Amino acid sequence: MLRQTEPISGLAVGSTAAGKGFRRGTGDGHAPDEGGRFSRGVQIILRSRTTNAYVIAVGTPFILVLLRLALSPVLKDSGPFLFFTPAVMISAWYGGFGPGMVASVLGAALGNYFFVGPIGFDFDSVSIARMVVFLLVGAQISWLSGAMLNAKERLEARVRERTAELEFQKTLLESQSNASLDGIMVAADGGMIFHNRRMLDLWDLPSDALVGTLETAVAAMRVRLADDQDPLDQGPMDVDSELPPSVMLRSGKTLEAYSADVRNAEGRSYGRVWYFRDVTERRRMAKQIIEAGEQERQRIGLDLHDDLCPHLAGVACIARVLQRHLEAGCPDQAPSAAQIVELVEQAVRRARDLARGLQPLQLTQDGLGNALRQLASNVESLYQVQSVCRLSEEGIELEDTATVIQVYHIAQEAVNNAVRHGRAGRIDIELSRVGSGVELQIRDDGVGIPADPAPGLGLHAMRHRARLVGGTLAVERGSGGKGTSVTCRLPARRNAAGGSPQKAG
Questions:
Q1: What mean pLDDT comes out for the span 342-363?
Q2: Which positions ≥6 away from 79 have C-beta within 8 Å?
Q3: In what order do the strands lie in the sheet with 426-434?
Q4: Measured on CA atoms in the order 309, 314, 315, 316, is the torsion positive or negative?
Q5: CA dihedral 116, 121, 127, 129 (to 10 degrees)
Q6: Residue 320: which of 282, 285, 348 has the closest Cα?
Q7: Which uninterrupted H or E stretch holds 502?
Q8: What are 290-322's pLDDT values in tens digits?
C-alpha cells in the first residue's frame, strides 16, 4: 500500500530576486560573465534593429514612388498621399513612432513633389491641407504602432525573464531531487514527466526504464518486486498507521512508498508524484531490537520457570510440613498454615503461567496454531472466560520465526485487552487464509472499544508489531456495536532474503 499524503499545492523556490540573481548561475552559486555578454549582445541587436527601422522608413517611400510612377497609367489622378500609407504602417510596425513619422514626412514630401502637379513642390492651400491631413494620419498610425511595439517588447522581456526564472527553479528542483535519498517519480496523463537518479538506483533499473508511458514504467518496476503486486497502487492505507506501507524487492531491499497529487492553489491537478525510501537497514535494526526484546522475555520466562517456581515450590513444601506439625501440636493454628500452603501453590501456578506467556516455546516447536490454542486454554483457566480457537484447514506459512512471534504477541495483547478492559464473557481466536495472505482475528462480546479510544500502549504495540512484519491492523467495534474485533492481515510469502517460511499450525 502507498501512503496517500496531502496534495502538493506549490513548488515555489526562492524569491523573484533570487531567481534573477541565480537563474544563469553555475553549480557553485557564482554568476558567470555570460550574463554580461548576453546583455551586450541584446543591446547590439536592439541598436541594429533601430538602424534597420530607419533604413526601412527611408527606403519604402522611394520604393512606393517608383511603384506609383510605374502604375500611373492605371492609377491616373488618385490621391497623391494615400499611396504612401503602407510605408508609414510598415515603418511604424517595425520601428515604432520615430520611423513611422520619418516615413510620414518623407511620404508627404515625395507625394507633393511627384504627384500633386507637375514635378516640383506645390504649396498651395489645398496641397498643404492634404499634406497636413496625411501627416496627422501618419502620426496617429505611428503612435498606435509605437505603443503596441513597446507593449510587445515589454511583454517579451517579461516572458524572457519569467522563462529564465522558471528554468532556474526547474534546474534547482532537479538538483535537489537528484541529491535526495528518496527515489522520486512524477507522471501525468499516463506519461512519465520526471524521475531522479536515486529512483533508478533504488529499483536497479536501466536509464531508459522510466521514460515513456506510466504503464511501461510500472511493468519495469514490477519485475523487480519480490511478489506480484502493483508498485504504485496497492489499495487504501491504514489511517491509524504512523508509518507508510512498504514494498519488497527481489534484491532484498524494503522501500517505504508515498504518493500525492500535485495541485495548484485552485486545486487543479498536474499529475501525481511517488516517493520511495530505502528502509532496509532501519527495518533490519528494528527487527533485531524486537528479537533482542523477545530473547529478554524468554530469559525472564526461564528465570521464572527454573528459579522462582522451584523456589516457591520449596516454600510450599516447607509450609506443608509446618501445617502437619501444627495439626499435631497446635490444631487451632493449622488452618492458617493450610491457607499459606494454598496461597503459595497459587503463586506457583501463576508464576508458571507467566513463564509460559513470556516464553512461548511452542512457537518454534509446534507452530503458531498450537500456541494460539494454548493461549485460549490459559485464558479459560486463569480468567474463567470462554475462549475458542479456530484454525484454517489449509496449511498457513508465514515468513519466519520472528513473524510468528509477532503475530502471537498481537493475539496475546488483544486477548488481554478483551479480558481486562472489555470485560468479555467469550473470546474467539481465528487464524485463516484470505486470498494470498493470512488473517488473524480476535473477537469478543465485551463492552466494545470506544468510538474515539485514547491512545494506549497496548494498541500502539499491536500496530507496531503488525508493521514490522509487513502487515496491517484494524481495531473496530463488533457487529451490532457489541464487543471488539481486532484483525491483523499480513502476506504469506517467502522472505525476499531467502529465509524459510514457518508453518502456523
A1: 75
A2: 130
A3: 386-391, 426-434, 437-444, 484-491, 472-477
A4: positive
A5: 140
A6: 348
A7: strand 502-503
A8: 778 777 877 887 888 788 888 888 888 888 888
CA angle (251 as vertex; 496, 211 as ends), nearest 5: 125
Whole-model pTM: value is: 0.54
Q: Which residue has the cell 498481537?
A: 410
Q: Which residues of 229-247 are buried (b: 16+ CB within 10 A; e: fewer)?
A: bebbeeeebbeebeebbbb
Query: To 10 degrees, what angle do helices 85-95 and 34-70 make?
Result: 180
User: What is d(CA 478, CA 485) in angstroms, rounded to the nearest whole number?
Assistant: 5
SS3 26: coil
Residues 6+ apart with CB under 8 A from 206: 200
Q: Return phi, psi of residue 396, to 5°.
A: -110, 125
Please give the single-letter amino acid code of residue 344: V
Q: What does residue 269 show for φ and ψ, rounded to 5 degrees?
A: -85, 135
Q: Name the one residue in this structure whose C-alpha cell is 519480490.
A: 226
Report strand pairing: 254-263 vs 3-4: parallel
What are the cell numbers at 369?
496454531
Q: CA torsion 314→317→322→326, rounded to 10°? A: 160
DSSP string, 121-142: ----HHHHHHHHHHHHHHHHHH
d(CA 119, CA 116) in angstroms, rounded, equals 8
The answer for residues whose C-beta is within 8 angstroms of residue 115's C-beta and 6 or more apart is: 68, 80, 83
- What's 470's DSSP letter? T
Q: Are 501 and 495 in contact (CB under 8 A)?
A: yes
What pLDDT, in 10s, does the model give residues 212-263? 899 999 999 988 887 767 787 644 444 444 456 778 888 888 888 888 888 8
Banded pLDDT at 414 (limits 50, 70, 90) = very high
Residues 48, 145: Cα–Cα separation, whole Å = 19
